[in-house]
């Protein structure tokens, strides 16, 4: 489930970054960062899922160990991404800077920021069971 959540959140991040760049709220280079985050974090999350599934099916302790290491890294990443407002990450702190703008495009970006931050937070909470 966490793999699908991350795919949805990174796609939402790309959509949000496109809208913010088109509205002038963020530099357009952040769109490249969003695509790179998709290219980096979705395969890492998929590999973690593979290691967990393989380890569970084959009773392989090495795979379970690497699953836990990768998932721990992802937990820390999702926690940081849900909070910061740096680069293309629209964490909870980004809401205040968008609220200061006050037009209708900013309100839609606030909605997308809340959805993205909730996605990262839910992904984090779904991974904490390690």
Describe the structure.
With 130 residues, the protein is mainly alpha-helical. α2 runs antiparallel to α3. The longest helix is centred in the middle third of the chain and has 30 residues. The radius of gyration is 16 Å and the shape is elongated. The protein starts with a helix and ends with a helix. 28% of the residues are buried. The model has no long low-confidence stretch (mean pLDDT 87).
Which labels suit this protein?
single chain; 130 residues; 5 helices; mainly alpha; 81% helix
Overall pLDDT confidence: 87
Structural class, by secondary structure, is mainly alpha
- Unreliably modeled segments: none
Distance between the termini: 14 Å
What count of helical segments does DSSP give? Answer: 5
Total number of beta strands: 0
Describe the main β-sheet briefly.
Answer: none
Helix content: over 70%
Shape: elongated
Q: Report the portion of residues in β strands.
A: under 5%
Order of helices and strands: HHHHH
Radius of gyration: 16 Å
């Amino acid at each position: 489930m966490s793999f699908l959540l991350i795919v949805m959140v990174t796609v939402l991040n790309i959509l949000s970054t496109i809208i913010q760049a088109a509205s002038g709220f963020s530099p357009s280079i952040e769109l490249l960062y969003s695509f790179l985050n998709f290219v980096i974090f979705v395969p890492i999350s998929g590999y973690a899922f593979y290691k967990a599934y393989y380890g569970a099916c084959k009773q392989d302790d090495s795979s379970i160990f690497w699953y836990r290491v990768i998932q721990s890294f992802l937990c820390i990443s999702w926690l940081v991404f849900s909070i910061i407002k740096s680069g293309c990450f629209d964490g909870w702190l980004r809401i205040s800077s968008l609220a200061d703008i006050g037009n209708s495009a900013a309100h839609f970006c606030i909605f997308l920021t809340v959805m993205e931050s909730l996605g990262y937070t839910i992904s984090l909470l779904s991974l904490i069971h390690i």
